[in-house]
Each structure stands twice: as structure tokens, then as C-alpha cells.
Write a structure and sequence with these properties.
Radius of gyration: 28 Å
Shape: globular
Largest sheet: 8 strands, mixed
CATH architecture of one domain: 3-Layer(aba) Sandwich
CATH class of one domain: Alpha Beta
CATH topology of one domain: Rossmann fold
Structural class: alpha/beta
Oligomer: single chain
Number of helices: 23
Distance between the termini: 87 Å
Length: 757
């Protein structure tokens, strides 16, 4: 065959530079275009190699291949030609997992190294015995409709059946004739990924891959169905490509080899060069983590070391044990007792350090609550390495620098400065770095349920309020300590029409209708409804700002007697604000659009299109059920809007659960901890107003507030609009000097809790 099996979009000739070549094997009946939405989401140094076998796509006129040996031999030969010295990762989805496996075996036999083999939503070789018999058209039709490969009505058209079914028949025959017992077991790092909503290849099936490598086997889960690589590409890409050998380490749960063995093999990277004085190198430890060799009271150096620990959370929790081991070494060197508490997920842990209080009237502990995990840094391109902790132009860049390793560093540095000075507090001070804050089942709520009474907090300080500057960008204006969080509801849109050949497009296609509905929802604005905390904050902001127009708009909004007046003034507040996205979120219900999916074959106009978005609610403001009804009324019958609750939940149950969260009272700010914070702000930011506030996001505070434990949120350093926009985004960063000043604020807060002599 003269037509090549492999293509690397955008690359001609092959790039010989160092990097990764990700070779993607499509599921049954498909070809390389099924990975089309991966382009632009891959790490910067990764090229995507797509496979087009005979009988489909640009090779539709060729005879399909139904022999696994011929298939794998052809692909392996072309990979050798395209590799150009790059790191190889083979990624197979569904049937593609077997094809990737057999191709991997041939490459290794030929002396070509394979960095990683990834099986996504696929059965292992041992599930196939070569006795499947002949595949019929009815078998192919049942497979195509049963797995959601195509819409059932599409197959009623003989023209489409003629195009769609031959590749499916060929691939099903290939699987039916395949005998996995004949395959050797290679020595390769293997990642086996199951999709949580996949009815065809469940977790128990994917777990059998552990027996099909003599190397390390990592088992991961992602949200989505059988075609999660299309529905949830970012999560699948992260699962497959994070932590490659020779690149930065993965932070995943590892079965088979064991977490400790993998930590030693993968995480023992040696020292990383410092980028600034005080940002000391991290050295490997015998336990497989790294030690911190700098000054533990230097928050900048600590933050750099924390960022260099890649604790990315792909959705089901991160590998936080090496991060915890580093913290353990820091606190133990200062004589502070520590504890690492495991969760059911291997390598995913909670870390505690406790400085005991003194005196006869000791109060319940103050908990400084941070989180170890960070969101992944994939998809959008960074201008710096997100896990290098680089400092440029007075800014510290890195995933988690703002959310929330910078805050963690301020907590640790301030606390250990008191310890170094021999301070005694009137209560225990507990530093807790929790896991699964971003996503996952084993966060703070799980811990408080499984270990009741272990912390027994009197008050908690975690992430939350901001320090903002005046319009000049230099003069601090207002500092806030948040006393409650917004809560969000996941909503799903679906538009439908009918599937057809791309030669016959029509008015009202599902994708176009979805775009129109999304545009309409994007223009929707909830009424301005500041709750009690927001009103207090904006009243203080009106006194703090030197911008007279903003102050006037704020007072008009707070004094408005009608909804129309309040909406008009509130819109003016947002328009005049230096941080409009932040202040808008503190004033109303907001919608944030997170994903859209449609299409499954390049010559088919799909019959459905879906999108998901989050509606975030202020406590004491809009009722979630009323907002859902309003949105449904807005879009009419052009799309179906559904509430996405927990598994097994009805819409009403999901709404009632959210109403319960929104009814949790604000944290009391008539406390010694709140007053200590206000005093600290006056010392570090003279003349700046320090006020209670409503947080615009959700944190780990809710389980504590449900137990009537006051929780306060702070980002103690000054921020601007650009920094806020980059939270969870590209080029996340904080100011170096702002971090140092914020650490001083935390130090002064703790100073207010020292025991009397």
C-alpha cells in the first residue's frame, strides 16, 4: 500500500527536535479524526500522530485489514520512520488499546523504546481468545447503535450504512480473530484508564491490564462515557501524557509496583536549580520525596519548592505524598510534630503539623487550611514552565502560585518564624494541607467524617478574600476576609435535530442551534442581589476608594429602592471596577461555560450537540430552582436543559441539596481571630480598610461551617485583575514582594494569638 498509515498534522517533514510523539489508535470503526479535538490541547513539545487504516477516511476505497499482525506490523514500521528520536507514547482507545499493545510489542522487539503505553476504555489482550467467528452486518449495526457510535436513524439510509458499517465490520472481525494468549508481556510503563460512565468497559475490566506489563501500571479514571477521549479530552490527555519519563514527574496513584517504588523511581530527580536567592533547590530523600534546603521562614523560597512539586489533580485526586513528605521534613527540622494521614487512594494524603498551645485556659485550635493539589496545566500554552517556579520581573510563575501554594507558603513561613522565636500561643496552631480540594472524594468532608474529633477546630483560616489596590495599581485600598462561599450547580444543554451526510446540510443543525443557545445564555444577566456580606464589603469599598464615580455608584446601588435602580447602579459598579469579574461575581448569580461536544465522524452532521456550564449562587440571594426555571423559559424548546446532580439524584434532590449548602450561616466575625486579622492588616497596610466579605468561589470551608466552626478566607497578598484572570489559567502568578508582605500579615495575625506571659 502506497498511502501512509500515519500522519502528523502540521508537520512536514518530521520534526527531529526533542519531544514526544503521541501515536493515537482509534476505537472500532473510526480513524485518526476521532482525536481531532486533541489538537491545540497537547503539551507544547508533543506532536500528535494519527492513524488512518485502509477502508476509511482518505483510504475508504482500500480493502480493510482484519488481521492484527498485519495491522501492527504496518503501523510499527511507519512509527519507526516518523519517530525522529522523539519519546514515544502509544495511546489506544477501546479496540485501539489492543492495536497499541501489539504495536508496542513489535517496536520493543525491534529495539525501539516506548516511553508509555496507554489503554483507554479498552479490554486487555487476555479477554480475547480468537474464537469469535464471522461478523455480520447485523453485528456491526448493533455495535454502532449500542455504543453510541452513530444515531440509529442514520443506519436506515443504505447510503450511510454502506459508508459506516464496513470499517466497523473489519474491526470487529479483527477483534474476533485476535488471540491475546499469543502475545508476549512487554516491559513498558502502562497507564490503564477507565471512564466513570462507560457501561461497556467498566473499571473491573480495565484493571485487568495490570497483568499485561512487566513494568509499572498506573490505573486512572476520567469522567465520561465510552468515548471519553472526545467527551472529556483534557482529562484523557492528562491521564495519558502527564509525568512522562524524561519529563516532569506524574502525580498519580500507582498499583502493581506500589506508590513507594514509583516515588523512588519517578520522583527522585535530584536538585533543581534555584531561580532566585532564597528559592533553594529541592533534593531527593530516601522516602522518594524531596527535601527543602532553604530558609523555611522565606515564603518565596517555599513557594518555589511547592510549585516544583507537580500535584496536578486530573479529577480523581492527585499524588500528594511527596509534597507532604517535603512539608514533613520542613516542620520536623523546626521541632514541630507532624502526621501524614492516608486516604483510600494510594499516595493521596492529608498532611498535618501542630504547634501546641500553652496556658491554663487554652482555646480550641486554629487551623491554617491549605490544599496540596492544583488543577492541571494542560491544553492552553504557557510562556513559562508551569512547574518550574520561575521568577521574572518580580513575579513568581507556576501552577498553584495563586491557588494556593503561595498562601500555603505564607502560612508555613509565618508560623515557623514564631516557632524559631520560641513563641507560645494560647491555643494549638494546626497547619493542614488537604488533598482533593479541586476534585476527588477524599477532601476535607471525607476526613471530618472518617476522623471525627481529630482536628476539633475552634476556627479555620483558608483561601478566600483579596487585598486590592487603588486605581493607581500601587496603593493598597481594601483587604477582605471572607466569611461564606458561593455554591454552584452543574447544568447541561442538549440540542437535537437529525444526523445526515455532510453533503446535505440543513437549517437547524444541532451544532448551530447549540451555538445560538449558548450565545443567548452568554448574554443573560441575573439581577444584582448583594447579600449581607457583599453589602458590608461594598459599603467599605465606597469609603476606601479614591474613585469618586465608583463610590457614587456603590452608594446608589446600596441605597436603591427598586430592582431597576439596583441593577442600573450595580452594572455601573462593575463597569467602573478595576476588578470587574470579581465584583460582578460578588453581586449576582453567574454562569460559567466549561465544555461543548458534538460530532463523531468527519462525513456526518451530528444529530445532537451538548454543552455544560455552572451556575454559581450567592447565599441569601437567588433561589436555584427559580434560576433554572428562568433559563428554561429563556431558551424555550430550542434546547433541553438538565440539572446534573450526584449519581442517582433527581433534579429536585440536587436543588434541595444546593439550597441546604446556601442556607449554611455566615461565619461569625465577632471573634478574636477576626479581630487579630484586622489588627494585622492595620500593621502591615496602614490606612487600609479590613472588612468581612463574601467569597466568589467555593472552598473546603463548608463542612466546618456546617458544624458551626467559623471559617475565614484570605489571600493575604495584593492582586490585580490580570492575576485574578490567570487563576486556574495560563501563566498563573503572584508578586514576589506582595507574597512577602502577605506573609508578614499572617505573622502579625498569629502574633495576636500569642499566650500572655
Amino acid at each position: 500500500m502506497n498511502v501512509p498509515w500515519l500522519s502528523v498534522p502540521g508537520e512536514n517533514p518530521p520534526d527531529s527536535a526533542a519531544g514526544t510523539l503521541a501515536v493515537c489508535f482509534a476505537p472500532t470503526g473510526a480513524h485518526g479524526s476521532t482525536f481531532a479535538n486533541w489538537r491545540g490541547r497537547l503539551p507544547e513539545d508533543t506532536a500528535l500522530a494519527l492513524i488512518t487504516p485502509p477502508g476509511r477516511g482518505t483510504r475508504v476505497d482500500e480493502e480493510p485489514v482484519t488481521d492484527m499482525t498485519a495491522y501492527a506490523d504496518a503501523v510499527a514500521a511507519e512509527i519507526r520512520a516518523l519517530r525522529a528520536g522523539r519519546r514515544l507514547v502509544l495511546i489506544g482507545v477501546s479496540l485501539g488499546a489492543l492495536l497499541a499493545y501489539e504495536t508496542c510489542c513489535r517496536l520493543l522487539d525491534a529495539g525501539v523504546p516506548v516511553a508509555r503505553l496507554c489503554a483507554v476504555a479498552g479490554q486487555c489482550p487476555g479477554d480475547f481468545h480468537g474464537d469469535g467467528g464471522d461478523v455480520t452486518v447485523e453485528d456491526a449495526r448493533a455495535f454502532a447503535t449500542g455504543t453510541g457510535l452513530t444515531d440509529p436513524e442514520l443506519l436506515a439510509d443504505p447510503e450511510f450504512e454502506e459508508v459506516l458499517l464496513p470499517p466497523v465490520i473489519a474491526d470487529l472481525q479483527l477483534a474476533a480473530d485476535y488471540d491475546g494468549s499469543r502475545s508476549p508481556v512487554p516491559h513498558v510503563e502502562l497507564r490503564a484508564v477507565w471512564a466513570t460512565e462507560d457501561p461497556h468497559v467498566p473499571e473491573v475490566t480495565v484493571r485487568r491490564w495490570i497483568d499485561w506489563t512487566r513494568g509499572e501500571c498506573t490505573l486512572l479514571s476520567v469522567e465520561g462515557g465510552h468515548y471519553a477521549h472526545q467527551e472529556n479530552p483534557a482529562a484523557v490527555i492528562s491521564a495519558c501524557l502527564d509525568g512522562l519519563p524524561g519529563a516532569r514527574p506524574s502525580r498519580r496513584s500507582v498499583l502493581g509496583a506500589g506508590a513507594t517504588a514509583v516515588a523512588g523511581a519517578v520522583l527522585g530527580l535530584g536538585a533543581v536549580p534555584a531561580t532566585t536567592p532564597g528559592a533553594s533547590a529541592a533534593a531527593p530523600t530516601a522516602a522518594g520525596g524531596v527535601s527543602f534546603e532553604g530558609d523555611p521562614t522565606d515564603a518565596v523560597g517555599l513557594a518555589v519548592a511547592m510549585i516544583r512539586q507537580n500535584t496536578s489533580n486530573p479529577g480523581d485526586g492527585a499524588l500528594t505524598q511527596p509534597f507532604a513528605q517535603m512539608l514533613q521534613g520542613i516542620f520536623r527540622a523546626a521541632g514541630v510534630s507532624t502526621e501524614i494521614v492516608p486516604t483510600p487512594k494510594e499516595g493521596n494524603v492529608h498532611f498535618f503539623a501542630r504547634v501546641p498551645g500553652s496556658g491554663p485556659a487554652r482555646k480550641k485550635p486554629l487551623v491554617l487550611l491549605g490544599h496540596s493539589d492544583v488543577v492541571p496545566a494542560i491544553g492552553d500554552k504557557w510562556t513559562t514552565d508551569p512547574f518550574a517556579g520561575d521568577i521574572e520581573d518580580g513575579k513568581l510563575y507556576g501552577r498553584g502560585s495563586l491557588d494556593m501554594k503561595g498562601v500555603n507558603a505564607a502560612f508555613v513561613a509565618a508560623l515557623l518564624r514564631h516557632v524559631r522565636e520560641g513563641a507560645a500561643f494560647d491555643r494549638d496552631i494546626v497547619f493542614w494541607s488537604d488533598c482533593d480540594e479541586e476534585q476527588g472524594p477524599y477532601g476535607v468532608r471525607w476526613f471530618l467524617t472518617e476522623h471525627p474529633g481529630k482536628v476539633d477546630a475552634g476556627a479555620v483560616i483558608t483561601e478566600g478574600g483579596w487585598v486590592l489596590n487603588q486605581r493607581d495599581g500601587r496603593t493598597p485600598m481594601i483587604a477582605s476576609l471572607t466569611c461564606n462561599d458561593k455554591r454552584s450547580l452543574l447544568l447541561r444543554l442538549e440540542t437535537s435535530s437529525y444526523a445526515t451526510h455532510t453533503s446535505k446540510p440543513f437549517t437547524g443543525q444541532a451544532v448551530i442551534r447549540l451555538g445560538e443557545v449558548l450565545d443567548q445564555l452568554g448574554q443573560w444577566r441575573a439581577h444584582i442581589r448583594p447579600n449581607a456580606l457583599s453589602r458590608q464589603y461594598f459599603a467599605e469599598l465606597a469609603e476606601a476608594t479614591t474613585d469618586r464615580s465608583l463610590a457614587e455608584a456603590l452608594r446608589e446601588m446600596l441605597n436603591a429602592r427598586t430592582e431597576q435602580q439596583r441593577d442600573r447602579a450595580g452594572e455601573a459598579v462593575v463597569l467602573l471596577s478595576e476588578t470587574p469579574e470579581l465584583h460582578n461575581a460578588m453581586l449576582r448569580t453567574t454562569l460559567a461555560f466549561t465544555s461543548a461536544q458534538s460530532g463523531y465522524y468527519p462525513s456526518i452532521v451530528p444529530g445532537t450537540a451538548t454543552a455544560e456550564f455552572r451556575a454559581a449562587f450567592l447565599p441569601g440571594a437567588d433561589d436555584p430552582g427559580r434560576i433554572v426555571a428562568e433559563l428554561r423559559s429563556l431558551i424555550g424548546n430550542r434546547a433541553a436543559l438538565t440539572v446534573v446532580g450526584n449519581p442517582g439524584e433527581s433534579e429536585q434532590q440536587a436543588l434541595d441539596r444546593l439550597r441546604g449548602y446556601l442556607a449554611v450561616p455566615d461565619s461569625d466575625y465577632d471573634t478574636d481571630v477576626f479581630r487579630a486579622w484586622q489588627t494585622a492588616v492595620r500593621r502591615t497596610h496602614p490606612g487600609v480598610r479590613a472588612t468581612a466579605c463574601q467569597f466568589e468561589a467555593v472552598t473546603s470551608a463548608v463542612p466546618f461551617r456546617e458544624q458551626n466552626v467559623p471559617v475565614y478566607g484570605m489571600y493575604p497578598f495584593t492582586v490585580n485583575r490580570d492575576m485574578l484572570k490567570r487563576m486556574h489559567g495560563t501563566d498563573e502568578h503572584i508578586g514576589v514582594e506582595a507574597l512577602r508582605q502577605g506573609t508578614e500579615t499572617v505573622y502579625q495575625l498569629l502574633a495576636g494569638l500569642r499566650a500572655e506571659a
